[in-house]
Amino acid sequence: KAGVTQTPRYLIKTRGQQVTLSCSPISGHRSVSWYQQTPGQGLQFLFEYFSETQRNKGNFPGRFSGRQFSNSRSEMNVSTLELGDSALYLCASSLGTGAGNTIYFGEGSWLTVV
Amino acid sequence: DQQVKQNSPSLSVQEGRISILNCDYTNSMFDYFLWYKKYPAEGPTFLISISSIKDKNEDGRFTVFLNKSAKHLSLHIVPSQPGDSAVYFCASGGTSYGKLTFGQGTILTVHP
Fold first, then answer.
1. pLDDT per residue as tens digits for the range A62-90
2. How would DSSP label each residue in B58-104?
3. For testing the chain B interface, which of A44, A101, A102, A103 should be mutated: the one with the most B CBs within 10 Å?
4. Per-residue DSSP letters for B12-67?
5. A99 pLDDT above the threshold of 80
């Protein structure tokens, strides 16, 4: 059974540009969430989608957005990139939403902003 | 406000011995706890979880203990193997949809 798949794995962008990251959840999983990992802040929750609806959002500026498609695939977008957005962006999926649902992570997308 | 804390940044153990990784949390609303293992440049790999209605859960070499009154959980790895060397994160959930709150991680090194 394929795991959570993220593309691209690595990318370099310039300040002010925007970036779109893609995520395919584990087959059958309907919840997709996104996390940012940086050395200083650790793993931080960005947002969660279930059945194409954003159910929850972390404490990030509006430059960070996402969406989920009817096939449960998800994308996240960061506009007007800043140097501090350089991070590992992790997508995770689970069967359902709420407590008790184990969350499985993808390999991540490494974003470097220069 | 760090709601999940792993106070030991690193732990070093000998192969075959027990590894004990600790985690403390402050939010009494958390009701689901997970441990993940992470290698550099990879996503976290799920290891084991425990619900707040239990105080222990075992899966092979991995056992998680939960002490709700102390708001403390621990992961025991017995016996430890060199392949267990990685960063271990504890995570807590249950307060809101899809959101896990992570600790800062503990680097485990298992020496042959």
1. 999 999 999 999 999 999 999 999 999 99
2. EETTEEEEEETTTTEEEEEESS--GGG-EEEEEEEE-SSTT-EEE--
3. A103
4. EEETTS-EEEEEEE--TT--EEEEEEE-TTS--EEEEEEETT-SEEEETTEEEEEE
5. no
